[in-house]
């Protein structure tokens, strides 16, 4: 079992009047059909905001200090998040509440199973569940927040947003041993302020 790699999120919001960052790196790629992870390192993120460029974090420290001095903006917006692929399960996340980057295009990975609707079984694909719940755009991918919940006895199936989830009934006499749980997915909320 492969666990996602921990990375740090640095979000640069102030873009008006400043040239775009000149040091660039490749954005984490879309999910590959073989299920391989999109690469693990620290990135300035998200790249889809106007004027923000994906840059390796080690190249950003000087730029962040310069920006803070120029704008009197002293608080960096830093969040830890996990990088997942379309086959990463909810049970693979190390914390009860975890911010997760999911790649684009996970709805097409039908071999990555999903059980439930709203609340998903821990063995479900986390990123496909995020698309199913409507909290992650399939075409763009992005950040979501996953929260673990206690194991449920019933996970209803449905088809939403191009992802089919299956019905799963857990026999109460045969509760699986180990750290098997449910999870819910919500949109990642950017926090701004001093």
TrEMBL record:
The keyword Plastid does not apply. PROSITE patterns: LCCL (PS50820). Keywords: Signal. Residues 80-165 form the LCCL domain. Residues 1-25 form the signal peptide. Transmembrane segments: none annotated. Gene3D superfamilies: LCCL-like domain (2.170.130.20). This is LCCL domain-containing protein.
